């Protein structure tokens, strides 16, 4: 079909030239036919010079994380769980035109024999979403089994199924992690990776094992084809969270912050949102300070779930909701009284976030100083290290300014 379309594109200009020049010019020389090819959706790796300026409300960042959940990957899943909030912090450092990005994350799993063979043992766990609590919940629900890892298939499905941003110069990336050869399965990884970058999506490959094995297994080639980075990690390396003097106050501020959320929807939905926020705080474990730092930033948003966040974007929400969809404390109030209560809660949240951001900044400085005294090696690199290695440079190539 594509070949016939190309013939059609070529045939039309020739016919027009024939009609204009007349039959006597059928043997004329120097007839030039120009065929314009459709440009790529996004040039994600070129210089920021010449890029279309950002004019939207929030610059777009879409990230799909593709995790091998075969038997040998328990360590990888544990790293993803414990380092999620550190990874998200990498995006919190970025701005475009002074605006923090709207981050959406998707999770896919592949290589798990509990999944249907007819679907190449892969599953979309979470679509692209800005609900980071939902992403965390999904990671803690993953389990490993079996081992038929088809990288080409899962990359192709991620490109096809997800509603990737159409914003010019959005940062769109796939991070795929696993340990088996990259060229397994019915879909050629070369076709998958070329298709991804043609749609403006960079593919970063994270090989769980040593460098040479990753090269032999085609992980490096996959990254090169999709203009991403080839990285190696030790999936069994235990993640160590550095304790800091600021942790105690951060945890206290996080608890106070949770009390400022006005969840809305059905009674079961409201309960689910509140419960999940608390559960993901607990799941963060010793990484709770990193999670709290994200909750103090604009990356952690609950539009469509929390009235404070939603009201900032659409004040009419308090008139549209039914009485039994409102938070219990707002039921029975007039529209004006609801608005006043939301404003009070918004002010309270802003005060807590300011204190939390300052404590987190002091914590980051403490951790940076501690790490300067350590000597990390390639053999001890983790999933979070791989993300950190790729994100900063690629965000800059998409027109973001990346701070510390």
From TrEMBL:
State the signal peptide span: 1-28
Keywords, ordered alphabetically: Signal
Q: This chain belongs to which protein, by name? A: VWFA domain-containing protein
Q: Which InterPro entries match?
A: VWF_A, vWFA_dom_sf
| Chain ranges of the VWFA domain | 62-210
A Pfam family: VWA
């Amino acid at each position: 079909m594509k070949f016939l379309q190309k013939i059609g594109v070529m045939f039309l200009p020739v016919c027009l030239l024939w009609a204009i020049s007349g039959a006597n010019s059928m043997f004329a020389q120097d007839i030039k036919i120009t065929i314009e090819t459709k440009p790529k959706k996004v040039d994600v790796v070129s210089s920021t010079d010449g890029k279309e300026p950002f004019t939207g409300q929030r610059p777009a960042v879409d990230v799909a994380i593709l995790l091998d959940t075969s038997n040998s990957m328990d360590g990888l899943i544990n790293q993803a769980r414990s380092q999620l909030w550190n990874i998200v912090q990498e995006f919190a450092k970025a701005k475009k035109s002074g605006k923090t990005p709207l981050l959406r994350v998707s999770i896919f799993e592949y290589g798990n024999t509990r999944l249907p063979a007819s679907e190449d043992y892969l599953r979309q766990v979470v679509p692209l979403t800005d609900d980071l609590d939902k992403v965390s919940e999904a990671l803690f629900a993953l389990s490993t089994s079996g081992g038929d890892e088809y990288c080409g298939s899962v990359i192709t499905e991620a490109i096809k199924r997800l509603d990737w941003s159409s914003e010019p110069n959005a940062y769109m990336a796939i991070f795929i992690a696993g340990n088996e050869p990259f060229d397994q399965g019915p879909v050629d990884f070369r076709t998958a990776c070329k298709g991804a970058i043609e749609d403006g999506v960079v593919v970063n490959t994270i090989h769980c094992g040593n460098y040479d094995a990753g090269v032999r297994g085609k992980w490096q080639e996959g990254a090169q084809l999709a203009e991403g980075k080839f990285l190696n990690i030790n999936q069994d390396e235990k993640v160590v969270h550095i304790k800091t003097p600021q942790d105690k106050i951060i945890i206290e501020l996080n608890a106070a912050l949770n009390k400022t959320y006005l969840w809305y929807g059905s009674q079961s939905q409201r309960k689910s949102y509140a419960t999940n926020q608390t559960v993901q705080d607990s799941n963060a474990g010793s990484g709770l300070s990193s999670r709290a730092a994200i909750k103090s930033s604009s990356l952690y948003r609950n539009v469509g779930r929390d009235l404070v966040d939603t009201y900032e974007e659409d004040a009419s929400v308090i008139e549209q909701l039914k009485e039994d969809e409102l938070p219990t404390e707002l039921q029975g109030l007039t529209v004006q009284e609801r608005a006043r209560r939301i404003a009070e809660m918004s002010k309270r949240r802003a005060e807590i976030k300011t204190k939390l951001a300052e404590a987190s900044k002091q914590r980051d400085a403490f951790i940076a100083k501690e790490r300067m005294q350590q000597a990390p090696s390639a053999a001890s690199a983790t999933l979070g290290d791989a993300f950190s290695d790729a994100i900063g440079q690629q965000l800059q190539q998409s027109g973001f300014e990346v701070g510390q």
